[in-house]
Amino acid sequence: MKTKKAVVVGGGIIGLCSAYFLNKKGFEVTVIDKGDFRQGCSHGNAGMIVPSHFIPLAAPGAIKLGLKWMFNPESPFHLPLRLDKDLITWVWKFYRAANKRHVTRSAPLLSWLNLASKQLYEEIGEEALPAFGFQKKGLLMVCKTFKVLDEEASLVTMAQKLGIKAMVLSSDEVRQLDPGLRLAIAGAVYFPGDAFLTPQLFMSGLYHRLCTLGVSFLPFSEVISFSKKAGVITAAHTKNKSFVADEYIIAGGAWSGRLCRNLSVNLPLIAGKGYSVLLPQPKARPKICAILTEARVAVTPMQNGLRFAGTMELGNAHEKVNKKRLNGIFKSIPRYFPDFKAVDFQNLDVWTGLRPCSPDGLPYLGRPKHFKNLILATGHAMMGLSLGPVTGHLVSQIACNEKMERDISLLNPSRYD
User: Fold this and answer.
1) What is the pTM for the complete model shown?
2) DSSP designation for 358
3) Total domains in the fold of the chain
4) Which of 5, 323, 340, 390 is most exposed, with minimal Cβ within 10 Å?
Protein backbone atom coordinates (compact mmCIF):
# COMPACT_ATOMS: atom_id res chain seq x y z
CA MET A 1 0.00 0.00 0.00
CA LYS A 2 1.28 3.46 -0.90
CA THR A 3 2.40 5.55 2.08
CA LYS A 4 0.31 8.66 2.48
CA LYS A 5 2.06 12.02 2.70
CA ALA A 6 1.22 14.99 4.92
CA VAL A 7 2.56 18.54 4.80
CA VAL A 8 2.33 20.45 8.08
CA VAL A 9 2.68 24.22 7.76
CA GLY A 10 3.98 25.55 11.09
CA GLY A 11 6.62 24.25 13.45
CA GLY A 12 5.21 25.31 16.81
CA ILE A 13 3.66 23.05 19.42
CA ILE A 14 0.55 22.38 17.29
CA GLY A 15 2.60 21.60 14.19
CA LEU A 16 5.06 19.30 15.96
CA CYS A 17 2.34 17.42 17.82
CA SER A 18 0.40 17.01 14.57
CA ALA A 19 3.56 15.64 12.92
CA TYR A 20 4.08 13.25 15.85
CA PHE A 21 0.60 11.72 15.69
CA LEU A 22 0.48 11.67 11.89
CA ASN A 23 3.78 9.80 11.92
CA LYS A 24 2.28 7.29 14.36
CA LYS A 25 -0.57 6.74 11.88
CA GLY A 26 1.95 5.90 9.16
CA PHE A 27 2.09 9.20 7.26
CA GLU A 28 5.27 10.45 5.65
CA VAL A 29 5.41 13.95 7.17
CA THR A 30 7.12 17.16 6.12
CA VAL A 31 7.01 20.19 8.43
CA ILE A 32 7.60 23.62 6.90
CA ASP A 33 8.26 26.72 8.99
CA LYS A 34 9.39 30.26 8.29
CA GLY A 35 11.71 30.04 11.34
CA ASP A 36 14.28 27.54 12.53
CA PHE A 37 12.11 25.44 14.91
CA ARG A 38 13.98 26.89 17.92
CA GLN A 39 11.92 30.01 18.55
CA GLY A 40 8.29 31.05 18.33
CA CYS A 41 5.32 31.27 20.65
CA SER A 42 5.63 27.70 21.93
CA HIS A 43 9.12 28.20 23.37
CA GLY A 44 8.57 31.24 25.57
CA ASN A 45 5.14 30.62 27.05
CA ALA A 46 4.19 29.85 30.63
CA GLY A 47 4.38 26.07 30.15
CA MET A 48 1.05 25.33 31.84
CA ILE A 49 -1.33 22.44 31.13
CA VAL A 50 -4.64 23.81 32.34
CA PRO A 51 -7.85 21.77 32.69
CA SER A 52 -8.79 24.67 35.00
CA HIS A 53 -9.11 26.96 31.96
CA PHE A 54 -12.56 25.83 30.85
CA ILE A 55 -13.87 29.39 30.41
CA PRO A 56 -13.22 30.68 26.87
CA LEU A 57 -11.57 34.06 26.31
CA ALA A 58 -14.94 35.39 25.12
CA ALA A 59 -16.89 35.35 28.38
CA PRO A 60 -19.30 37.64 30.28
CA GLY A 61 -17.41 40.57 31.78
CA ALA A 62 -14.54 40.38 29.30
CA ILE A 63 -15.65 43.48 27.40
CA LYS A 64 -16.12 45.53 30.58
CA LEU A 65 -12.74 44.48 31.96
CA GLY A 66 -11.08 45.17 28.62
CA LEU A 67 -12.51 48.70 28.51
CA LYS A 68 -11.31 49.31 32.06
CA TRP A 69 -7.76 48.29 31.16
CA MET A 70 -7.67 49.72 27.67
CA PHE A 71 -6.24 53.15 28.45
CA ASN A 72 -3.78 52.05 31.14
CA PRO A 73 -0.37 51.64 29.43
CA GLU A 74 0.76 49.17 32.12
CA SER A 75 -2.37 47.01 32.13
CA PRO A 76 -2.31 43.34 31.05
CA PHE A 77 -4.62 44.03 28.10
CA HIS A 78 -4.49 46.31 25.08
CA LEU A 79 -6.59 46.68 21.94
CA PRO A 80 -5.38 49.27 19.43
CA LEU A 81 -7.82 51.96 18.37
CA ARG A 82 -7.63 52.02 14.60
CA LEU A 83 -9.96 51.83 11.61
CA ASP A 84 -9.12 48.33 10.48
CA LYS A 85 -11.92 46.27 8.94
CA ASP A 86 -10.57 42.89 10.07
CA LEU A 87 -9.97 44.13 13.63
CA ILE A 88 -13.43 45.75 13.90
CA THR A 89 -15.08 42.58 12.55
CA TRP A 90 -13.14 40.45 15.05
CA VAL A 91 -14.13 42.68 17.99
CA TRP A 92 -17.80 42.56 16.94
CA LYS A 93 -17.72 38.75 16.79
CA PHE A 94 -15.98 38.65 20.19
CA TYR A 95 -18.69 40.89 21.66
CA ARG A 96 -21.41 38.61 20.31
CA ALA A 97 -19.72 35.51 21.77
CA ALA A 98 -19.01 36.95 25.22
CA ASN A 99 -22.12 35.60 26.94
CA LYS A 100 -23.16 32.96 29.44
CA ARG A 101 -24.66 30.66 26.81
CA HIS A 102 -21.34 30.47 24.98
CA VAL A 103 -19.50 29.63 28.21
CA THR A 104 -22.03 26.92 29.09
CA ARG A 105 -21.66 25.32 25.63
CA SER A 106 -17.87 25.60 25.50
CA ALA A 107 -16.79 24.64 29.03
CA PRO A 108 -17.37 20.85 28.77
CA LEU A 109 -15.38 20.63 25.52
CA LEU A 110 -12.51 22.84 26.75
CA SER A 111 -12.19 20.86 29.97
CA TRP A 112 -12.20 17.54 28.07
CA LEU A 113 -9.59 18.78 25.59
CA ASN A 114 -7.26 19.91 28.36
CA LEU A 115 -7.68 16.73 30.41
CA ALA A 116 -7.09 14.57 27.33
CA SER A 117 -4.02 16.64 26.44
CA LYS A 118 -2.56 16.19 29.91
CA GLN A 119 -2.94 12.43 29.56
CA LEU A 120 -1.26 12.53 26.15
CA TYR A 121 1.67 14.49 27.59
CA GLU A 122 2.19 11.63 30.02
CA GLU A 123 2.02 9.09 27.19
CA ILE A 124 4.48 11.05 25.03
CA GLY A 125 6.83 11.19 28.01
CA GLU A 126 6.64 7.42 28.44
CA GLU A 127 6.90 6.54 24.73
CA ALA A 128 9.07 9.11 23.05
CA LEU A 129 10.85 11.77 25.09
CA PRO A 130 13.36 12.15 27.87
CA ALA A 131 12.42 14.34 30.84
CA PHE A 132 10.92 17.72 29.91
CA GLY A 133 10.17 19.05 33.39
CA PHE A 134 6.62 17.66 33.54
CA GLN A 135 5.17 18.31 37.01
CA LYS A 136 1.70 17.27 38.14
CA LYS A 137 1.51 19.66 41.10
CA GLY A 138 -1.53 21.70 40.15
CA LEU A 139 -2.08 25.43 39.69
CA LEU A 140 -2.93 28.26 42.08
CA MET A 141 -5.14 31.16 41.03
CA VAL A 142 -3.60 33.55 43.56
CA CYS A 143 -5.80 36.48 44.60
CA LYS A 144 -4.61 39.71 46.17
CA THR A 145 -8.08 40.80 47.33
CA PHE A 146 -10.99 38.99 48.94
CA LYS A 147 -13.33 40.43 46.30
CA VAL A 148 -11.47 38.71 43.48
CA LEU A 149 -11.06 35.56 45.59
CA ASP A 150 -14.85 35.39 45.93
CA GLU A 151 -15.21 35.84 42.15
CA GLU A 152 -12.75 33.02 41.45
CA ALA A 153 -14.40 30.82 44.11
CA SER A 154 -17.70 31.08 42.22
CA LEU A 155 -16.16 28.89 39.49
CA VAL A 156 -15.29 26.02 41.84
CA THR A 157 -18.73 24.39 41.68
CA MET A 158 -18.76 24.62 37.89
CA ALA A 159 -15.29 23.05 37.75
CA GLN A 160 -16.34 20.18 40.00
CA LYS A 161 -19.40 19.48 37.83
CA LEU A 162 -17.02 19.15 34.87
CA GLY A 163 -14.92 16.61 36.77
CA ILE A 164 -12.13 19.08 37.58
CA LYS A 165 -10.85 19.11 41.15
CA ALA A 166 -10.90 22.59 42.66
CA MET A 167 -10.85 24.11 46.14
CA VAL A 168 -10.65 27.52 47.80
CA LEU A 169 -7.62 28.01 50.06
CA SER A 170 -6.93 30.67 52.65
CA SER A 171 -3.57 32.45 52.58
CA ASP A 172 -2.39 30.19 55.43
CA GLU A 173 -3.40 27.07 53.49
CA VAL A 174 -1.49 28.31 50.45
CA ARG A 175 1.59 28.78 52.65
CA GLN A 176 1.23 25.20 53.87
CA LEU A 177 1.27 24.00 50.25
CA ASP A 178 4.40 26.04 49.52
CA PRO A 179 6.05 26.71 52.92
CA GLY A 180 9.23 28.27 51.50
CA LEU A 181 7.42 31.15 49.83
CA ARG A 182 6.49 34.53 51.33
CA LEU A 183 3.06 35.68 50.17
CA ALA A 184 0.93 38.82 50.48
CA ILE A 185 -2.45 37.49 49.33
CA ALA A 186 -6.05 36.99 50.43
CA GLY A 187 -6.06 33.37 49.28
CA ALA A 188 -6.23 31.24 46.16
CA VAL A 189 -8.27 28.73 44.21
CA TYR A 190 -6.26 25.54 43.84
CA PHE A 191 -6.64 23.21 40.85
CA PRO A 192 -4.64 20.09 41.81
CA GLY A 193 -5.21 18.45 38.40
CA ASP A 194 -3.28 21.06 36.43
CA ALA A 195 0.36 20.58 35.49
CA PHE A 196 3.35 22.39 34.02
CA LEU A 197 6.53 21.72 32.07
CA THR A 198 9.59 23.43 30.60
CA PRO A 199 8.55 24.37 27.04
CA GLN A 200 12.05 24.54 25.53
CA LEU A 201 12.83 21.01 26.73
CA PHE A 202 9.61 19.62 25.32
CA MET A 203 9.90 21.40 21.98
CA SER A 204 13.56 20.54 21.39
CA GLY A 205 13.04 16.98 22.59
CA LEU A 206 10.04 16.43 20.33
CA TYR A 207 11.84 17.99 17.36
CA HIS A 208 14.84 15.67 17.73
CA ARG A 209 12.58 12.66 18.30
CA LEU A 210 10.65 13.43 15.11
CA CYS A 211 13.93 13.69 13.20
CA THR A 212 14.86 10.17 14.33
CA LEU A 213 11.41 8.94 13.27
CA GLY A 214 11.97 10.18 9.74
CA VAL A 215 9.92 13.37 9.78
CA SER A 216 11.38 15.96 7.37
CA PHE A 217 11.84 19.57 8.42
CA LEU A 218 12.22 22.58 6.18
CA PRO A 219 13.31 25.67 8.18
CA PHE A 220 13.37 29.29 7.03
CA SER A 221 10.80 28.50 4.34
CA GLU A 222 7.44 30.19 4.10
CA VAL A 223 4.52 28.64 2.26
CA ILE A 224 3.37 31.45 -0.02
CA SER A 225 0.66 29.77 -2.09
CA PHE A 226 -1.25 26.59 -2.83
CA SER A 227 -2.41 24.95 -6.04
CA LYS A 228 -5.95 23.63 -5.90
CA LYS A 229 -8.47 21.91 -8.15
CA ALA A 230 -12.08 20.88 -7.56
CA GLY A 231 -11.96 21.22 -3.77
CA VAL A 232 -8.61 19.47 -3.43
CA ILE A 233 -5.23 21.07 -2.69
CA THR A 234 -2.71 19.66 -5.14
CA ALA A 235 0.49 21.35 -3.93
CA ALA A 236 1.96 23.77 -1.39
CA HIS A 237 4.56 26.20 -2.70
CA THR A 238 7.47 27.95 -1.00
CA LYS A 239 9.68 30.41 -2.85
CA ASN A 240 12.00 27.65 -4.03
CA LYS A 241 10.08 24.39 -3.87
CA SER A 242 6.68 22.72 -4.23
CA PHE A 243 5.28 19.94 -2.06
CA VAL A 244 2.67 17.41 -3.12
CA ALA A 245 0.82 15.50 -0.39
CA ASP A 246 -2.39 13.70 0.44
CA GLU A 247 -3.13 15.92 3.44
CA TYR A 248 -2.23 19.54 4.21
CA ILE A 249 -2.35 20.87 7.77
CA ILE A 250 -2.21 24.60 8.49
CA ALA A 251 -0.86 25.04 11.99
CA GLY A 252 0.85 28.37 11.47
CA GLY A 253 -0.26 30.09 14.67
CA ALA A 254 -0.89 33.82 14.27
CA TRP A 255 0.11 33.60 10.59
CA SER A 256 -2.57 31.02 9.74
CA GLY A 257 -5.08 33.67 8.72
CA ARG A 258 -2.80 34.92 5.96
CA LEU A 259 -2.46 31.38 4.58
CA CYS A 260 -6.20 30.88 4.70
CA ARG A 261 -6.85 34.10 2.80
CA ASN A 262 -4.64 32.64 0.07
CA LEU A 263 -7.18 29.81 -0.13
CA SER A 264 -10.24 32.11 0.14
CA VAL A 265 -11.04 30.49 3.51
CA ASN A 266 -12.72 32.86 5.97
CA LEU A 267 -10.86 32.49 9.27
CA PRO A 268 -11.28 35.41 11.69
CA LEU A 269 -7.98 35.46 13.56
CA ILE A 270 -5.82 38.15 15.11
CA ALA A 271 -2.52 38.09 16.94
CA GLY A 272 -2.37 38.48 20.72
CA LYS A 273 1.12 39.48 21.80
CA GLY A 274 2.52 38.26 25.10
CA TYR A 275 5.79 38.65 27.00
CA SER A 276 7.87 36.50 29.30
CA VAL A 277 11.13 36.67 31.21
CA LEU A 278 13.14 33.98 32.95
CA LEU A 279 14.91 34.52 36.26
CA PRO A 280 17.72 31.94 36.24
CA GLN A 281 18.48 32.32 39.97
CA PRO A 282 15.31 33.61 41.66
CA LYS A 283 15.33 34.85 45.27
CA ALA A 284 12.37 32.57 45.95
CA ARG A 285 11.19 29.57 43.99
CA PRO A 286 7.54 28.44 44.12
CA LYS A 287 6.94 24.71 43.87
CA ILE A 288 3.56 25.14 42.17
CA CYS A 289 2.75 27.21 39.10
CA ALA A 290 0.45 30.16 39.72
CA ILE A 291 -1.50 32.92 38.06
CA LEU A 292 -1.53 36.29 39.81
CA THR A 293 -5.22 36.78 39.13
CA GLU A 294 -5.71 40.54 39.24
CA ALA A 295 -2.45 41.16 37.34
CA ARG A 296 -2.96 38.32 34.82
CA VAL A 297 0.65 37.22 35.29
CA ALA A 298 1.67 33.55 35.09
CA VAL A 299 4.47 32.24 37.31
CA THR A 300 6.03 28.88 36.49
CA PRO A 301 9.00 27.08 38.07
CA MET A 302 11.07 25.52 35.31
CA GLN A 303 14.25 23.48 35.20
CA ASN A 304 16.28 26.49 34.12
CA GLY A 305 14.72 29.11 36.39
CA LEU A 306 11.46 30.88 37.22
CA ARG A 307 9.36 32.21 34.34
CA PHE A 308 6.96 35.16 34.52
CA ALA A 309 4.61 35.67 31.58
CA GLY A 310 1.73 37.98 30.80
CA THR A 311 -0.17 40.58 28.77
CA MET A 312 -2.51 40.28 25.83
CA GLU A 313 -1.91 42.95 23.19
CA LEU A 314 -4.54 42.16 20.58
CA GLY A 315 -4.13 43.10 16.96
CA ASN A 316 -0.42 44.01 17.01
CA ALA A 317 1.16 41.50 14.62
CA HIS A 318 4.74 42.46 15.41
CA GLU A 319 7.17 41.49 18.14
CA LYS A 320 8.30 44.93 19.32
CA VAL A 321 8.56 45.20 23.10
CA ASN A 322 6.27 47.68 24.83
CA LYS A 323 8.35 48.66 27.86
CA LYS A 324 5.45 50.22 29.75
CA ARG A 325 3.40 47.04 29.52
CA LEU A 326 6.44 45.00 30.51
CA ASN A 327 6.95 47.25 33.54
CA GLY A 328 3.34 46.56 34.46
CA ILE A 329 4.23 42.88 34.80
CA PHE A 330 7.35 43.62 36.87
CA LYS A 331 5.55 46.01 39.23
CA SER A 332 2.75 43.53 39.91
CA ILE A 333 4.95 40.63 41.05
CA PRO A 334 6.17 42.09 44.41
CA ARG A 335 2.55 42.82 45.38
CA TYR A 336 2.00 39.07 45.66
CA PHE A 337 5.57 37.83 46.31
CA PRO A 338 7.34 40.36 48.61
CA ASP A 339 10.69 38.58 48.17
CA PHE A 340 10.89 40.07 44.66
CA LYS A 341 11.49 43.67 43.66
CA ALA A 342 10.81 45.27 40.28
CA VAL A 343 14.56 45.92 39.96
CA ASP A 344 15.17 42.14 39.94
CA PHE A 345 13.82 42.02 36.39
CA GLN A 346 16.05 44.65 34.85
CA ASN A 347 18.56 43.60 32.18
CA LEU A 348 16.82 40.26 31.54
CA ASP A 349 16.26 38.98 28.03
CA VAL A 350 12.63 39.60 27.11
CA TRP A 351 10.79 37.05 25.02
CA THR A 352 7.76 38.09 23.02
CA GLY A 353 5.45 35.96 20.91
CA LEU A 354 2.19 36.17 18.99
CA ARG A 355 -0.75 33.99 20.00
CA PRO A 356 -3.45 33.17 17.42
CA CYS A 357 -6.81 34.35 18.80
CA SER A 358 -10.25 33.48 17.46
CA PRO A 359 -13.20 35.78 18.31
CA ASP A 360 -15.02 33.19 20.43
CA GLY A 361 -11.93 31.97 22.29
CA LEU A 362 -12.13 28.47 20.83
CA PRO A 363 -9.54 26.89 18.52
CA TYR A 364 -10.17 26.19 14.87
CA LEU A 365 -9.81 22.45 14.30
CA GLY A 366 -11.12 20.46 11.36
CA ARG A 367 -11.64 20.63 7.63
CA PRO A 368 -12.96 23.89 6.14
CA LYS A 369 -15.99 23.19 4.03
CA HIS A 370 -14.45 23.88 0.61
CA PHE A 371 -11.46 21.50 0.80
CA LYS A 372 -11.38 17.72 1.17
CA ASN A 373 -7.72 17.37 2.12
CA LEU A 374 -7.05 20.48 4.24
CA ILE A 375 -7.06 20.52 8.04
CA LEU A 376 -6.86 23.73 10.07
CA ALA A 377 -5.37 23.59 13.56
CA THR A 378 -4.93 27.08 14.98
CA GLY A 379 -6.57 29.77 17.11
CA HIS A 380 -5.57 28.31 20.49
CA ALA A 381 -4.71 31.73 22.01
CA MET A 382 -3.03 31.17 25.39
CA MET A 383 -3.75 27.42 25.45
CA GLY A 384 -1.54 26.31 22.57
CA LEU A 385 0.89 24.42 24.74
CA SER A 386 -1.84 23.01 26.96
CA LEU A 387 -3.80 21.72 23.95
CA GLY A 388 -0.89 20.75 21.71
CA PRO A 389 -0.98 16.95 22.09
CA VAL A 390 -4.76 16.58 21.92
CA THR A 391 -4.87 18.81 18.85
CA GLY A 392 -2.19 16.72 17.14
CA HIS A 393 -4.05 13.54 18.05
CA LEU A 394 -7.31 14.89 16.63
CA VAL A 395 -5.57 16.09 13.47
CA SER A 396 -4.34 12.56 12.86
CA GLN A 397 -7.84 11.15 13.41
CA ILE A 398 -9.35 13.66 10.97
CA ALA A 399 -6.66 12.83 8.39
CA CYS A 400 -7.55 9.13 8.70
CA ASN A 401 -11.31 9.80 8.68
CA GLU A 402 -11.62 8.03 12.04
CA LYS A 403 -14.56 8.39 14.38
CA MET A 404 -13.66 10.69 17.26
CA GLU A 405 -14.33 10.02 20.90
CA ARG A 406 -15.84 13.50 21.31
CA ASP A 407 -17.96 15.85 19.23
CA ILE A 408 -15.73 18.81 18.31
CA SER A 409 -18.19 20.61 16.03
CA LEU A 410 -17.83 23.77 18.14
CA LEU A 411 -14.29 24.00 16.72
CA ASN A 412 -15.47 23.86 13.11
CA PRO A 413 -13.15 26.18 11.14
CA SER A 414 -16.06 27.17 8.85
CA ARG A 415 -18.25 28.36 11.74
CA TYR A 416 -18.05 32.00 10.61
CA ASP A 417 -18.99 31.31 7.00
Assistant:
1) 0.95
2) -
3) 1
4) 323
